[in-house]
Amino acid sequence: MDAEYYSLGDQAIVIELGDKIERTTHQRVKEVSEYLKNHPPHWMIEYIPAFTTVTVFYDPIKVMEDSTSGKLPYSIVCEKLDQQITNLEITTDSEPRLIEIPVCYGGEFGPDLSYVAEQNEMSEDDVIEIHKNGDYLVYMIGFAPGFPYIGGMDERIATPRRDDPRLKIPAGSVGIAGGQTGVYPIETPGGWQLIGRTPTKLFDAGEEVPSLLQAGDKIKFTSITEEEYHNWEGTNS
Amino acid sequence: MIKLAKSGLLTTIQDLGRIGYQKYGVIASGAMDSESHRIANLLVGNDGDHPTMEITLMGPVIEFQEDALIAICGGDLSAMVDGERVELWKPIYIKQGSELRFGNPKQGFRAYLAIAGGFDVPYVMNSGSTYLRAGIGGFEGRALEKGDEIPVGDPSMPSLSMMESLKELAGEEHFCSASWFASPEFVPNAHSGCEIRVTEGREFELFSEESQEKFFEQAYQIDSKSDRMGYRLKGSKLKLNEKVDMISEAVAFGTVQVPSEGNPIILLADRQTTGGYPKIAQVASVDLPKLAQLKPGEKIIFKKITHEQSQKLWIQREMEIKQLKRGIHFKYR
C-alpha cells in the first residue's frame, strides 16, 4: 500500500494512509497497526493509530546502532517502514470484533435525551431506536483513556454540543456531539449531549489491555432498564 | 521510608512515563524535565529508570526515617538538610532522622529528588508515574500530601557502598555530599527570554505569512493557566490562511498547536495522546528540559532549526549523557 511520511519532531514519524475519515482508510490504518504490533522494530517505542495516520515513536540512538550508512535516523526509519508498508495488502478476511454496550437511556442517566428529541422533531423512543440501530465502527482511541471515536451515527439524531459544557460527566455516559456519538470511559468535563449511561467498564488500569474498545471494533448498543443497569453495575466491581 | 511533613506546591512521583499505552488513549505522563530525572537516578547509583520525586517551585519538607543516598537535580529550589544548604547534581548521604526542606526558588521551576533504590510505588501499566487527572499511578494516583509515608526500594550494591563511604566521611554530621558532581553543562540554562529551538510543524505552511514571521520574531509569555498538560502562551495571535478541517492525529511532547482563538499551546508530559489543532511547530527534544524549567510569567523566543539539526542535537546530547553515565560508574567502582 502507498503511504506518505512526515516527521513529528525528532523522535516520531507520521505514516499518512489517506486524507478522509472513511472505512477504507481505516482498514489501512488497522493493517499497518497490526503489522507493527506483530513485528515491532527494536527501535520502535510505541505507535498511535488515528483516523488517517499511524504515528510511530522511535529511539534515534537505537536506529543508528542498526546502520553504518551515516544517514539521519529519520531517513532510515522512513526507508525501513516504507519497505514493509509497500508490501502490505488490505486483507478483508479478519472479522472485526463486535462489542455490545448496554445502555440505560434517558432519565437521570440521559438528561439531554429530550433535548435531542426536540431538536430533531421526533419522540425520545425514536432517538433511542435510531441510536441503537446504528452501524458503528471505532475509528480510533484518543482524547482520554479508552475514549472511542465512533463513526456511523445516523444523521437524523445529530445534535450540536451544549453551549455550556458540564464540569463533570460521569464515567459510562453515552452522548452525542454533532454527528458523532461516544462513550466516556472516565469522569471528565465535556460538552456532549448525554442520552444515557452504560454500566460496562470501558477502562480498567489494572488490565493488560486497559481499554475495552480498540480501533477497528464494531459496536452494538442495546437498551436496558434502570434496574438492569444497577444489577449490572453490582457485578462489575 | 520517608515521610512528608509538608507537601509543597505540587509534588508528584514520576519516571520516564507510561510507554506503550498511548494507543489506548492513556497519556504518557512522566517527568517534565526527563534529563534531570535521569541524571538524579544515575547519581545515586540506580540502575535503570526508578521513580523520583518531581518538586515544583515550593518544595516539601521530608523526614528521612532511615539512612539514605539522594541526589537533587534540575531547578535550584534551595534545598537544605537540617538548616544547611546542600548542593545539587551530586550524591548526598543523609542520616536517619534528618530533615530535607526547600527555601526560596533560586533558578528553574522543577527539582528532581532521586533516592537510592527509588521510591517504591506500585507500577500501573508498567510505570510509576502519576497521572493526576485520571488518578492513576505514582503514590495513590495523586500529588503528595502532608503525612504521606513513601517506601523506598532496595538500593543496589554500588549504592550501598557509596552510602557507606559517605557515611564514614560524615562522622557526626547529618549529611555528607560527594566531592564530585555532574558537569554543569547538564544544568538546564532556563531564564525568562531564553531561546527554545523548534522545527516547523506539519501545518506550518497553513498559517498566514504574517503569523509565520511573528511566531519567530516575538516573545511569548507562559500563561498562569499552564500546567503539566501544556504551557498556554500569550503573545502575537496566530492565524491560518483559511479555516481548515483538521483530522485528529497523534501529538508529542513539545508539539506546539494553535486553537482557533490564536494563542499557541505547547503540549507537555500530561498531554492528550491525540489532537485536532494545527501544529505550527515542534520543540526540539534537546530543549524540552529547559522548557520544563520555565515558570508561568516567563518569556520564550522560538528559534527555527531544521529537522536534521534537531535530531543531530538530540543524538549529541544522548552521547554526552552516555559519557556522564560512564563517569559515574567509574566513581561507583
Structure description:
The complex is a heterodimer of chains A (about 240) and B (about 325). Chain A is α+β, with helices and mostly antiparallel strands. Chain A has 2 domains: about 5-85, Gyrase A, domain 2 (2-Layer Sandwich); about 100-235, Beta Barrel (Cyclophilin). Helices cover about 25% and strands about 30% of the residues of chain A. Chain A contains 6 helices and 13 strands. Chain A has helices spanning about 25-40, 60-65, 75-85, 115-120, 125-130, 225-235; strands at about 5, 10-15, 45-50, 55-60, 100-105, 135-140, 150, 165-170, 175, 180-185, 190, 195, 220-225. A 7-stranded mixed β-sheet of chain A has the order 7-6-13-5-12-9-10. A 4-stranded antiparallel β-sheet of chain A has the order 1-2-4-3. A two-stranded antiparallel sheet of chain A has the order 8-11. In chain A, a hairpin with a 3-residue loop joins strand 3 and strand 4 (about 55-60). Chain B is of the alpha+beta class. Chain B is built from 5 helices and 21 strands. The interface of A and B includes residues 33, 73, 203, 205 and 206 of A.
In short:
Chain A has helices at 23-38, 60-65, 73-86, 113-119, 124-132, 226-234; strands at 4-7, 12-16, 44-49, 53-58, 98-105, 136-141, 148-151, 166-169, 173-177, 180-183, 188-190, 193-197, 218-223. Chain A has 237 residues and is α+β, with helices and mostly antiparallel strands. In chain A, strand 3 (44-49) and strand 4 form a beta hairpin.
Describe the structure using short key phrases.
heterodimer; A: Gyrase A, domain 2; Cyclophilin; four-stranded antiparallel β-sheet; 6 helices; about 25% helix; B: about 325 residues; alpha+beta; 2 domains; seven-stranded mixed β-barrel; six-stranded antiparallel β-sheet; elongated
Number of domains of chain B: 2
Quote the beta fraction of chain A.
25-35%
Task: Give the uncertain stretches of chain A in residue-range form.
Answer: none
Give, in order, the helices and strands of chain B: EEHEEEEEEEEEHEEHEEEEEEEHEH
What's the overall geometry of chain B? elongated
Rg over C-alpha atoms of chain A, rounded to the nearest angstrom: 20 Å
Query: How much is the average pLDDT of chain A?
Result: 92
Q: Helix and strand string of chain A, N-terminal first? A: EEHEEHHEHHEEEEEEEEH
